[in-house]
Amino acid sequence: MIRTFVGIPLPGAVVRDLTAAQAGLPAGRAVAPENFHLTLAFIGEHPEPVIEDLHLALDRITGAGFQVSLAGAGLFGNKRPRVLYAGVRSGPELGRLREKVVQAARGAEIPLARERYTPHVTLARLNSGLSPEDAAELRDFAARRAGFSTAPFRIEGFALFRSTLGRNGAIYEALAKYPLDK
Q1: Structural domain total, the chain
Q2: What's the mean pLDDT in 128-154?
Q3: pTM for this structure?
Q4: CATH code at 127?
């Protein structure tokens, strides 16, 4: 079984900005800079032939490159935050690309959970035993980063990533890259 997701790798300047935004993190586990990405769809664990079918479907996706930027910070999980993230500012192109990825997965007979898509880049993962004090500090931390932003950057493609879980978090490896503007 291979655990995968489809995402957009980020340019070096954006990775540096995100790393700086993590400074002073009061709780949780910061995402390693080499793991920063913008997720389009979490695929989950599937046998290799299914992932190969997905690869073939993803390789048929076409579209033009587009611009996005990162802006602001927030927490997923109201009273019990579980993720600290940087928000994404984009036009409709990102949503269209995500929909193409979802359709490719379904075409490969991979059932994806129907959920609202909130584009973001995870800055830190928070454990479920977070104290109310730590949660309050994290809310303040996110609020202080409300003005966080990056310069616009161009999305020229996306990738299929393997996610290997380990003691110190996940390790991501790009299995295939798919350029836009083919």
Answers
A1: 1
A2: 90
A3: 0.91
A4: 3.90.1140.10
